[in-house]
Specification:
By secondary structure, this protein is of the alpha/beta class. The chain is 30% helix and 24% strand. It has 20 helices and 28 strands.
Amino acid sequence: MNLLPKSSKEFSSAEYWEKFFKKRGDKSFEWYGTYTELCGVLHKYIKPTDTVLVVGCGSSELSEQLYDAGYRDLTNIDISTTAIARMQERNSARRPSMTFLCVDAQRMEPFADGSFQAALDKGTLDALAPDGSPDTVERVGRVFAEVGRVLRVGGRYVCVTLAQEHVLRAAVEHFSGEGWAVRVHRVEGQEGGFCLPVFVLVCTKFRRPAEGSAALPQILEVCEGEEGPPRRLGAPEELLGAVMEIQAYALLRSQLASHTDPAQTPTLQLCHTHTGQPRYSCHVVDSPAGATLHRASHFAVFIVPQGRETNWLFGTAEGRSQLAGSAGFRRLVVVAMHRDQEYQDMQAIQSELSAKVMELAPPGLPANHQVPFLSVGGDLGERSVMHRGSSTFSGDFVVEDVRGDEGRLYRRLIFLSNSSVVQSENLLRETGNPGSGRKRNRKKKGQRAESVQAPPLKGRGQAVDRSFLCCAHHRVMVSGLALLRGRGKDLAESPVSVLLVGLGGGALPQFLHDYVPGSRVQVLEIDPAILQVASGWFGFEQDDRLSVTLGDGLDLIDTLAQGGNCTYDVIMFDVDSKDSSLGMSCPPPAFVEQSFLEKVKSILTPQGMFVLNLVCRDPALRVGVLSVLRGLFPLIYDCGIEDEVNEILLCQQGPQEQALTPPELLSAGQALQGVLRRPGQPWDSSLDIAALLENLKIA
């Protein structure tokens, strides 16, 4: 029997409901849950002594159950004569004081102004508002006006609803505009059969201020359960956004509870109840079909130590998938902690997260299953924010010190608009102990690290170790200088000139200055704030061989090309894009357009090299970039970086026939290593240039 409409617009027609109730017969029809599921919220806002108008009663048992619970003054209205007749027949003997009238909620002429203390609506508003069309807005506006007329001052419109955006928007804008208090209450433990949560909208009528007096402040609140205080919001849009977040989470829970899907790795944020600030980021990862699982290993939670959330294993979908596979659980929730939040210890975190992560459990989880909490070494990690700033170009940013692999200290620059990416990183060493932080053994993917006890970050003296390049792509860019030797450039005898676009924390240009003999390095940087950060927090120092020119790299290179009297041995691009919607995050697209790259080529020496740090997730876009580069530089070496999205393109002007053979690359790498590693200077023993050059291939 077809009882649901073919089109949602039919909900608003009297003809549909008349037909519906005739087909339904004497069976009750419960929109969005039963009395048992709703009574906790309803009793909070409607008193047994209130005069109550039930708007659109249909054949629901709700008003009957309210009557049986002590509510006697109940007036029920509905647009369907069939529904009213059947409800009268069903209740005349057992509930004699209940009233049933065939009245349209848009025109409630039988009732005088201020007749009721509460108006109860269970699904009627949703039925009258199938869409956001002008006709619908006008229709529900008439209902709202009539509800406002028949309610007394202090009375409440209590509406059980799915709170679709157009429905909630219409109600909130109308009643808040009338000066009413508006609260949206989530009904706990009830999904209404729609895979969406059910809400109770409570609008309380206030007396209008006298003409000429100040308007009352808006009262907009949301309650996510029956317990706990409501959360006050500042504007209707914030209230709508809060409800949409609850709905999205309910839909996600429904999906996660119904099936596992290794192809989907949903992420959600858990926020502080009172401040609304993000506290945890949770990534849900399912193991692929056929994966080897440990016995009874259904579900686990992995806590990422603070400061390690940007590591490949924890900060990328690929890394988290590998982590889940090696852990051997059907579903693994990878949890990252946020900066600016206090965390006591692992036990406190487990206690705080236990109830919420169980909502993310896979289907078929056995009852009373004990969910293990995992981590690296069993500690929370350490992170200390050293500096905060804001930039016109990059927005808000932080400089923070974190304890990383094997207890070593690192200083990082993070743009908060993309907080999962480390923009710049330097190794720190304790003042007075130069060798304490230099050696770094890179951990293999999935390998567990031992917990290292060390003093707290704050209150210690640290200096930036300029001999250590933390970023793998910087190591490759430096190693690429070995290719100049194959073109007749001996760095030991002939100083190299470098133009670098993008300063960051200054680690790359500072290393070139300190370790390439006689090098002259000019940096183009658009953001004055970044220059201040590099100088103040990352040990960057300018002199007569290392300088920074502030300005747009596109304009500055155009000026250099027009001048025609300045050339460089090496031009490097290490600049990110601020547009996260693009499939290429480094460099911005304008930097790899043919017309601009022609200008770049014009200021290279004949034997010079263009070095591009490319981060491109769009295969078609990457093909386009390579096509443009090949038209200008016949010989291009490509070096991908393990566990990272970066690849380094080393572009030269000679033909491919001049490409170095593997023995020649080995010899050039060893020669460059000998040039850079000079007696008396600190040196990073893990920097093996010849080994890095083994990864080069012709693009």
